[in-house]
Amino acid sequence: MILSGAKDRHNFTVLFLSSLMVISLGSCHFGSNEPYKNWEMYGGGNEKIQYSALTQIDTSNVKNLAVAWTYHTNDAEPGSQIEVNPVISDGVLFGVSPRLKLFASNPSTGKIKWIFDPFAEGPVINKKKRGINICRGVAVYKDEKAGQLIFYTAGASLYCVSGQSGKLVTDFGNNGSIDLHRDLDRNTEDIYITSTSPGIIYKDLIIIGTAVAEDATAAPGHIRAYDVHTGKLRWIFHTIPFPGEDGYDSWDDKEAYKHTGGTNAWAGFCLDEKKGIVFAPTGSSTDDWYGGKRLGNNLFANCVLAIDAATGKRIWHFQTVHHDVWDRDLPAAPVLVTVTKDGQKIEAVVQVTKSGFIFLLDRLTGKPVYPVEERAVPVISDLTGERLSPTQPFPTFFEPYVRQLLNENDLNRNLPDSSYQDIRQKLAGYTTGNLFNPPSKHPVLIFPGMQGGAEWGGPAYDPATGLLYINANEIPRVLTMIDAKEDSVTGNQTNGEAGKIIFSNTCAACHGTDRKGGGDFPSLIDISRRYDESSFKNLVTTGRRRMPAFSQLTESEKTALSAYVLNSKQLSAQQFVKENKIKDPYHKIPYVSATNRPSKFESKEGYPAVAPPWGTLTAINLNTGKTVWKTPLGDYPELKAKGLHTGTENFGGPVVTAGGLLFIAATKDEKFRAFNKRTGELLWETDLPAAGFATPAIYEIDGKQYVVIACGGGKLKAKSGDAYVAYALPGK
For 585, which DSSP code? Predict the structure, then answer.
């Protein structure tokens, strides 16, 4: 049944009641079963609106918040992160540690009930797939027979763990796990696959997306649904269509489905459970910067997809970028809302983007609620074989929530004159002036950058006010394409000589040809202090967090790479042995990015070259399209001391409450903040043990309201942390 045209706020809330839980188990003294008063799902609910109906903490008393408990996982290491939005189900808090240990704790004290280590020795572990990936949360299934089943991904395995015991549910898959390399209708055994955002539960299905590599050899990002009890594949949606499927004709190469990768729903899902529709955001197809091997509009890349949750059949799609060569993946799950247009209630889907656009689509048809114009964009490329879309979609109702163009007037004037003149001179040498300038051998400015506008934390939505809250980044980057070097590894070199060539072809795009890294990519100089040949080869094979696996390399190639990176004299002196391993010629592309994915446009001091703000928090009225308020988010302490409130690059989302508050961490300055949701006034700010690059969760236990945030740091050169910290009002 479709419920629309609600007359008042009460009926609006009732509309969403059934989507909070798959199966109700009755009331529980640990919390409330009322809508949005528990946090039982990633993002707070199937609609992914990141909203709490709790009101105990409000604008009048938020200044009194104090630490209620802290849990230290004790497994942080340099570069490790926690991006988890924890869930609280039937009086138990479930989270994940930096080393991907799943834990259950008492949400009122933080005391641990059990810990599951996916990398402990045992029959379910495939050592080839033991890489440490980013994990942003878990999915919980409940029924009276099975109790709580907790699903999450570690490495390339989707695990099913008993919420009661912390043990693997051995009836699921292969002794409790599923290898995500399988069931993709293509051989992907030696290709990097994991899942960062959790799947979503629909009835007795766990629906999952994947994170894959972003080069030409990447695995396809097909969406799958598995039986929660058996692990049996129930359906698959081919995001790169097969012959005879919708979208197949959007690819000029009719065998693209055999070779092309990406087009993956890495950012998670939202679900209209009453209608049985799951909504998926997809990323670009690969290679990210060069599309000459994948000509056409490339459905279903860069799409909002509406899929029948029971069968996997496409209901509708809307493409936000045609033939993406700018890495403009849809960065977060869509949000389910109800808006008012011309006095009528419309059930809609909101999709935010990296470029600062908001797409508002009818939930049943996918048609834009307000006009979206196809506008002409630059199409002339100096990259042989490339062919760009002549138009791109531009929403007309909402103003972009970030700047999209950068000229000399937008440069950072707070710098010393020599630094300002340096960035001014550099800007003069870049191609600018259009959001869709083609990648080129000439430097092209990409703004607001590849990691926002909006990013994976996603927005929050307040059903009481109709306001959407978006935290965003405005960090310019510079993309320069160069000719790909020919693979000249012959078998006549030493390991060190061959390893240098392999590094140039495989690793230099991120870590630089000098191995010194830059931006978010670490230096590999002196890496031999932490890795020997065996552990380095394992790292290359499995991947680690943001680093994909390079398991497609032969054993001899890994040995040669080890010799070069570890500067091993013994290995380097040995003769390289070339193995005869057949590689897909389709994956050989003529151009690559010259720098590490691409480089940030920064001053000599390391500050963004664009004038502040560099990170923002914006409230937008979905009914009027107007910005209600906007404020910089985060600070550089040394600049704040000079009176400059600049904002910082930020990762992790906000949560809005019925108590009038907006909670968000996300910034590199290691702060946790609460704003007045109606005005944007900062009401509370506290120091965290490490940066909270995660989305908070808000819940109630025995009548007491808590706000918990994972403090993992590890991004943007911030120190790594291992803590979950919960706050509450004293004495409540």
Answer: G
Q: What is the pLDDT at residue 122?
A: 53
Low-confidence ranges of the chain (pLDDT < 70): 1-33, 121-130, 486-488, 490-491, 496, 498-499, 501, 504-506, 508-510, 512-513, 516-521, 542, 544-546, 549, 551-552, 580-582, 596, 732
CA angle 154, 282, 614 (to 5 degrees): 90
Q: How far is CA 540 from CA 135, 495, 519, 592, in A?
A: 19, 16, 21, 20
Terminal alpha carbon distance of the chain: 41
CA pair distance 606, 608, nearest whole angstrom: 7
- What distance in Å separates the CA atoms of residue 721 and residue 71, rounded to the nearest whole number? 11
Residue ranges and CATH numbers for the domains of the chain are 25-115+456-474+613-732 (2.140.10.10), 485-588 (1.10.760.10)
662 and 681 Cβ atoms separated by less than 8 Å: no
Find, among 571, 532, 525, 549, the residue nearest to 193 by Cα.
549
- Integer angstrom CA distances of residue 553 from 151, 190, 559, 579, 722: 31, 9, 10, 10, 33
Beta-bridge partner residues of 430: none
CA torsion angle 614 615 617 622 (round to 10): 70
Whole-angstrom distance, CA of residue 460 vs CA of residue 472? 12
**What is the C-alpha to C-alpha distance for residues 601 and 662, in angstroms, rounded to an integer?**
31
